[in-house]
Amino acid sequence: MNDIQPLSEKLHRQAIQYPPLAAGCPPLSLPAWNRTLNRIQTGRQAIGNCLYGGQTATFWAPQQDLLQITNGPVGCGVYGHANRPQATGPMGLERFSGLNLGTDFQERDVVFGGERKLARAILEADRLFPLHRGMTLLSTCPIALIGDDLDSVARQQRSALGKPVVPVHCAGFRRGDGIGDTHATLTGTWQSWANPSATAGPYDITLLCREMEGAWRGIVRQLEAIGLNVVARWPAGSDRRQIARLGNSRLTIGIDMEYWSKRLQQQSGQSWIEADFRGPNATAASLRAIAARFDERIAQRTEALIESQAPSAIARLATCRDSLAGRLYFSFAPLQPRDIRVFTEAGIRVGSALQGWVDVDGRWRLPERHLRYQDMAPEQVTALLKQAQPDLLDGLAQDGTFWRRHGYAVLDDHARAELNRATIGFAGTERLVRVLQRLFDSPLRQYLPPWKTERNAPPKPKAQD
Fold first, then answer.
1. What is the DSSP letter of 347?
2. Which residue of 126, 208, 268, 447 has the lowest C-beta tally within 10 Å?
3. Within 194-251, where are the H helices?
4. What is the pLDDT of residue 5?
5. Which residues contact 413 (CB under 8 A, 6 or more apart)?
6. Domain 204-317 classification at class level
7. For the residues 255-280, what does the mean pLDDT come to?
8. How many CB atoms lie within 10 A of CB 452?
9. Is the pLDDT of residue 13 over 50?
10. How do strand 328-331 and strand 364-365 relate by DSSP bridges?
11. Per-residue pLDDT for 3 more than 50?
12. What is the C-alpha to C-alpha distance for residues 312 and 280, in angstroms, rounded to an integer?
């Protein structure tokens, strides 16, 4: 099937391919999301996968100078607000991504419609925050169910304000065609905001990467250190000016953004390259691949940077192999080879509930059934954990606290954010080693819970005479 056409017909029909993680690990092909099939197979509907939450936290919230208005119940906006990255600069003056603006949809709005209420909310937001450079209207489930005309309201207010007002149809229950609609909205925004008059310099590049808990800042520093100029970023740390420059540079660098890099190439003709900055070895390889697209000046600066920083970073990461060797990082989400590179370089075994794991004898063990966490009963999860004996769990979403109470170490959101920031480039290796040692080798792991100590153990039966 065509990689990039058409959006609404492709995204919900194709399977997701995951390459082998190690020797003995077969490739994994996850079937496309099928709401009805999932409900039939498991007897219940899977939790999560909210389209509104993904659009809010991943694509639109990182835009620093845009206002995001949630058209729906206030609870949806609070959920999205909790996941929004915080940009730098004064709130309400230079950045607006941390604000939770919503229409507070009520029962009467379901009956009589909420278009007038949305129009008033847009005018009020413009009055309160006049320095914004555009708005996005993020619709939720009730809006799609009652059929409010979001596009009509956006057109009217766009004319009244003289600023962009982008309607995003991202009701949480929508799947394939809904994802296609939201992606078409994004690419349409790229086209309408493009600035073709801007001239690209010889070292201007575009960076496509997600927020990664702020780790994108470390990537920008690495690229600028070898003499490149990041003129546009998306979606991490972006704004309207940078969106206008997305297709106007010498090269696009994609960090786990292959699909969007292809979309940008189709739209602007700009070539792209995939890169990975997690860990010193991957950083060195990516910098050399990027430098090969430019002149000798960039190549020399790249080699000088690698020669000065890479050996010490690699040696520091190798120092923790003895203490961490044999520990198992186990994820309930599918993994890509780039996701596990830092763990394997530190001597840590890796595994996934879908793809299997490295056993203590070095062989690759496969699960009996390839199931996502949302499709597994608690008894199945317990049996799998008993078989794998992991040292650190990941991919449990909101159930992390539940399994932590059962005695398992779980990688929570805060620790994952710190780990993501520490893995970027050469400079973070020292902190990366400390984070890995704390996660896998903390002294707290040596303590027994109260119910396992001898003092609280049940009394032994007395010997009979």
1. T
2. 447
3. 216-225, 240-244
4. 42
5. none
6. alpha beta
7. 90
8. 10
9. no
10. unpaired
11. no
12. 9
**CB atoms < 10 A from the CB of 348, how many?**
23
CB 368 within 8 A of CB 346: no
Of 19-28, 42-51, 421-430, 439-448, where does mean pLDDT reach its minimum? 42-51
- 225 to 26, 221, 287: CA distances (angstroms): 39, 6, 10
Which residue bears the tokens 């002294």? 443
Q: Average pLDDT of 338-354?
A: 87
As a whole number, mean pLDDT of residues 151-172 equals 90
Domain with CATH 3.40.50.1980 in the chain: 51-174, 204-317, 321-446
Could you tell me if 152 and 122 are in contact, meaning their C-beta atoms sit under 8 angstroms apart? no
CA–CA distance, 63 with 60 (Å, rounded to integer): 6
Query: In this predicted structure, what is the pLDDT of residue 128?
Result: 93
Sheet arrangement for strand 204-209: 229-235, 204-209, 251-254, 272-274
**Separation CA 409–CA 392 (nearest Å):** 5
Give pLDDT, residue 287.
Answer: 96
Architecture of the domain spanning 321-446: 3-Layer(aba) Sandwich (3.40)
292 within 8 A of 310, measured Cβ to Cβ: no
State the sign of the Cα–Cα–Cα–Cα dihedral 128, 142, 76, 335.
negative
Q: Amino acid identity of 187? A: T
In single-letter form, the type of residue at position 72 comes to: G
| Residue 255: pLDDT over 60 | yes
Of the candidates 343, 277, 339, 341, which has an alpha carbon nearest to the alpha carbon of residue 310?
277
**Better-scored residue on pLDDT, 233 or 374:** 233
Mean pLDDT of 76-80: 69
**Identity of residue 82:** A
The predicted structure's pLDDT at residue 253? 95
C-alpha separations of 262 from 230, 252, 272 in Å: 19, 10, 8
Tokens, residue 321: 């192999």
Are 146 and 105 in contact by the 8 Å Cβ rule? The answer is no
Distance in angstroms (rounded) separating the CA atoms of residues 54 and 58: 6
Mean pLDDT calculated for residue range 438-447: 76
- Determine the Cα–Cα distance for residues 64 and 61; give it in Å rounded to an integer: 7
CATH superfamily for 51-174 is Nitrogenase molybdenum iron protein domain (3.40.50.1980)
Report which of 176, 174, 147, 152 is spatially closest to residue 11, judged by C-alpha positions: 176
